[in-house]
Amino acid sequence: GDFESALAAESSQTNGTQFNIKSGTVIQLTAEISGQLGGGVWASGGATSPLIFRGYDSVKDDGGRFDIACATNTSAWSAGATFDMVCFIDGVIRDSGTAALINGGDRLTFVNMEFTGSSANRAVEVDTRSRFVSCHFHGLTGSVGAFVGDASYFYDCFFDSARVQQYEGTFDGCFFIEKGIQHYGSFNPYYVTNCSFYGGPAANTSTAVYMFSSGTQNAVVKNCLCENFGNLVRDTSTNAFAALVAGNSCFSVANEYTNVNSAIFQDNETLSASPFEKTGLATFANRHNFFAPANEGNVRTGGYSPTGTPATRGAVGFAGSTTSTVTKHPLVHR
User: Fold this and answer.
1) What pLDDT shows up at residue 14?
2) Smallest Cα–Cα separation from 333: which of 111, 106, 165?
3) Helix (DSSP H) and strand (DSSP E) numbers for the chain
4) Contact 90/68 with Cβ under 8 angstroms?
5) Where do the H-state alpha helices sit in the chain?
6) What is the pTM assigned to this prediction?
7) Regions of the chain where pLDDT drops below 70
8) d(CA 19, CA 54)
9) CA dist 10 → 35, 41, 59, 117, 292 (Å)
């Protein structure tokens, strides 16, 4: 099609390129995007001139979303470090069958993206220093929804029954339904702050933040809200030692903290009712209403802060807010 013809014609490896992909029509791929770029192995120009795939409705950068369907049992993107600094903005990548939707690449950026329709063991797999902002993971039936390398970052992302595995990274203001985060690595730092975990309408045995003892020393889990999980934080070893577990609120969590020893363990609480307002459905579009903090315990009055100034708990600000607790990237939620 026109999109794949444009890929084949593109051979610039230094100037940076943005492919503007119109909304309204599903683009059915016949092969991986990364394998169709012209000029042999295509290496992007770096941070100042990256390769960008972005959706639009009528004019460039207007927030419209592209819709890309993968070839049968084939990834949309599969590449190594020669494809650094690639950006996918405002779109959907779907239906890769048994293959991963995204498979490989270093320092990738995903903004306002939806990933759905894969049974791969790792539906979205990227290498180090990748970023995900306001992305939606759902309909991923393999064991892991997203697998990321060192120094990766998630902000305002929504994981619907999609577990995340990572070696090192940060989760700020993210939403998790039924499944949570698994950490791997040796002493690698990772941070889970102001996240909201909802196990579903009935309690399940999943762990929201599952830590492995070799990497726990640099862990921070703070100002999170959790309901209907087996654990908020669990470690594999009784000798594990986290840096900070503080300011968290739990309701209907069977074992809130298992094998957790922390240098700072304070301002955590057990609630007698849900920490979420639950207005409407627990969907990506409605996340700021469903997960709005309820007037329970210290959920609204403040979480842990080293300065003593009350901080918010969970991924959404005070009830009625339409913004998360951290200022959004300008590309997100116009």
Assistant:
1) 60
2) 111
3) 3, 29
4) no
5) 2-9, 33-36, 287-290
6) 0.90
7) 1, 8-15, 37-49, 80-84, 185-189, 212-217, 237-241, 318-334
8) 6
9) 12, 11, 21, 28, 45
